[in-house]
Amino acid sequence: MTRLQRWLIRLIYWTFIGFAALSIHGAFSFLLLNTTLAYIPIELSFWLTDRRSSFMFWVLAIIWLLFYPNAPYLMTDLFHLSLLNPYAVNGLLKFDLAMWRDFAYLVGPTMVSVIVGTFSVDQLASECQRRLHLTKLPGGRALISTLLFLFAAIGVYVGRFLRLHSIYLLITPQYIIKQLIDMWSLKMLAFVFIIWGLQLLIYVVWRFTLAAAKTTVSK
Fold first, then answer.
1. Residue 127: which H helix or E strand, with range?
2. What Pfam families does the annotation carry (predicted)?
3. Looking at the predicted structure, is the pLDDT value of residue 19 above 90?
4. pTM for the complete prediction?
């Protein structure tokens, strides 16, 4: 990702976060916090490059890992679309501009965070593969990405159903240890695999699209 692309992404997030702080209130006020939390791992990913010392890289990588689930977590916020009461009496979608505005508020940050988050996972996996000397491991980059997505899916469950934010891991870790130990069940694992599979699907499509674009350029 180029320097210009990074700053464009930052500008998009900063603009929406500022707008949310000033203008989005009521039922959708959660967008300010959730979008900010989703932006943190995006920003951290910009610093996880080969220019970082080994110590700084792994410190930032751990912090990124703790905050990254906030990006796919936004997908679960889409259930709040039910608050829009979108259907008219005849069963058709209403043509209500205020409703479609709120729709954009919910879907926009989710799409950006999922796409850029997927990119950040792939780039981090590539750098981890290089630093761990796993370049000869078949599919090592994809394997590391898969494991990161699995961790993220567990994080989405923790955030959505235990209502624990990533910041708690840094300020009050003792508060959540018991809950993390007791949360495991078949139902929980089923949810995790659903979110994991969804992330993998997005990742595969993203990699396929990227490969197709490179092929087109090379021609």
1. helix 97-131
2. DUF1361 (PF07099)
3. yes
4. 0.89
